[in-house]
Structures are given as C-alpha cells and as structure tokens.
UniProtKB/TrEMBL annotation:
Pfam families xref list: 2OG-FeII_Oxy_2
Entry protein name: DNA methylase
InterPro entries reported in the protein's UniProt record: AlkB-like (IPR027450), AlkB-like_sf (IPR037151), ALKBH3 (IPR032854), Oxoglu/Fe-dep_dioxygenase_dom (IPR005123)
Keywords, comma-separated and alphabetical: Methyltransferase, Transferase
Gene: alkB
GO molecular function term, any single one: methyltransferase activity
All residue ranges annotated as the Fe2OG dioxygenase domain in the record: 94-192
Length: 196
C-alpha cells in the first residue's frame, strides 16, 4: 500500500505528506479549535458512545448519515481552511466535508467498516490525514476475510483511498495497550448533492 508495493492498488500512503513542524502546528490548532463531541452510534441494535471524540465539518448541505445517526456539518475551523485546497490538489477531488476524530489514548478506536454511505457515491475518494500518535490501520477484504494487511499511520501521513477500496475492503483502527500519544485523524470526503 505504499508507493512501491501495493496490497491495494487503489490505496496509497504518503508517509511524510506534512513536514513535522507543520503537522505539530496543525495538531495543536485542531485540538484547540474543533468542537470535539461524543458521537452516539448504533451497534448490534443498541445506541452506544463512539470510543473516540469526533466532529463532522463541512460546507452547508453536507449532512451525513453514518453508523445509524445523522450529523449536520459544523463550519470549517480556521486551521483547515488553507489545508483544504492542498488536500483537493493531492486527491484530485473538491472535498466538501471532513470527519475529524480524536483518539485520546490507546483505548480509543474505530471498528470494522467501509466508507460506503450512499452520499459518497460509487468509488469515493477519501483522503485521510493523520496527526499525533502512530496507530495501526488494518484492512480486511469484504468477501475474503482471510485477506488482511496493515499499515502504520504516522504523524503527517496522508492515506488516499480511491476506486474500489471501499467496495472491496473494510478498515479499522484497533485499540492498543501500548502507551500512545493522542491522535487526530481527518477523513476528507465529497458528499454528493441529493438527487431527490
Ligand atoms: O482514524 C482513522 O485513521 C480512520 C477513521 C475512519 O476510518 C473513519 O472515521 O471512517
């Protein structure tokens, strides 16, 4: 999945997409500027607190339904306004929203899922920027679950997921017992206009 040898040809990891000092400054700004909240999600028929803090950010009209709940977008914080154009250039897509997640320590995590909500359309481009503590990011094939692989998402790295990545693979960010610094992840997305 790195630039030389790909386990998924349509998922590309750019380890040092941001320089360390720029990534440090962005992390500090996001911790201060984003209105972090606990999202309630539906799991196995029950509403539970998501084990991380989150914020759905976007242009007007980019309401998003995931894990059984609907989220209306918060406005873009100043720290993301300039970054947005650079993400668009890297992804080749005009992103109009971003899910920001804060993993406070190794107990915060994200379970198996694909970013395949109808609002994203078929074959969505997702640009995932990681800041702070390094965490494992794991992929499992949706129809052949024995096919799994993982990558480390480091401070300043950008993971671009395109093509059939969401249709063919699930991903997760597992818990860890290892002491790990706080991590912020930003998954930039393009929500398509409603057709009805
Ligand atoms: O934290 C991450 O790296 C991924 C988060 C994610 O997959 C999601 O929120 O959909």
């Amino acid at each position: 999945m790195n630039n030389s040898a790909g386990a998924i040809p349509e998922a590309t990891l750019f380890p040092d997409w941001l320089q360390a000092d720029e990534a440090d400054a962005l992390l500090a700004a996001l911790l201060a500027q984003v209105p972090w909240e606990v999202h309630r999600i539906r799991m196995f028929g029950r509403w539970v607190d998501s084990p991380r803090l989150s914020c759905w950010i976007g242009d007007p009209g980019t309401g998003y339904v995931y894990s059984g709940a609907r989220f209306e977008p918060r406005p873009w914080p100043p720290a993301l306004q300039a970054l947005r154009a650079r993400i668009d250039a890297a992804a080749g897509v005009a992103m109009n929203s971003v899910l920001a997640n804060l993993y406070r320590d190794g107990r915060d995590a994200m379970g198996w899922h694909s970013d395949d909500e109808p609002e994203l359309g078929p074959r969505p481009v997702i640009a995932s920027l990681s800041l702070g503590g390094t965490r494992r990011f794991v992929f499992k094939h949706r129809r052949e679950p024995a096919r799994k692989f993982e990558r480390l998402l480091e401070h300043g790295s950008l993971l671009l997921m395109t093509g059939d990545t969401q249709a063919d693979w699930k991903h997760a960010l597992p818990r860890t017992a290892r002491p790990v610094p706080a991590r912020v992840n930003l998954t930039f997305r393009r929500i398509l206009p409603r057709t009805r």
